[in-house]
Amino acid sequence: MFISLLTQQPFLALVWLAVILMSLTVHEFAHALAAERLGDRTAEAMGRLTLNPVAHIDPVGFIPLLLLGFGWAKPVPFNPYNLEDPKWDSVKIALAGPASNLIVATLSAIAFRGLDAGGMIVAGNALGFFLILLIIINLYLLFFNIIPIHPLDGSKLLDALLTKPEHQKIRRAIAQHGPRVLLILVFLSFMTSFNVFFFISVPSEALCDLLIGGRCF
Fold first, then answer.
1. Which of 95, 151, 152, 161 is the one with CA 20 to 30 A from 74?
2. Confidence tier at 174 by pLDDT (50, 70, 90)
């Protein structure tokens, strides 16, 4: 995605890259900050409590992100034994990432509305493109990461909720088949024109429209 955009519209490609780096960095930093506030300094000791993108980029996940538009950052480690309430504090740490994306999207929408009201946002405006992209990318990250499949953030909430003995089969089935299903969906999204991830794009775009009070696309 980045490479093809770079050959056609280099400036927009750089804007897209900046938005991706900012969004992933804030997401991972939020995990590290939540862990530190809840008593675990593992991420801080590993240099992850920072807004420096270099600390959070995983080359293995970043290269396909540039080539295909799908990838990942370095997961933020934490030690549940350092937490006062390992079960629910783990959930808080996990959901801090998606929560940060919602905050960034909301603040970007407020900025967009303010600049638009001041006449600074016009068609084809780079600033408008940057802010809209910042909103939509963060909303995509929000809805993608709350999917309750390991290693996504939503899996921590699922683990905390499904603790009874009768839930073990469900947890085992999701743990075994969930990542495979997710991988299949990713491949299908590349190989077909069907919007496989409609359950992410539809709410993301609807919320984007709501936040800016108009149409994002």
1. 161
2. confident
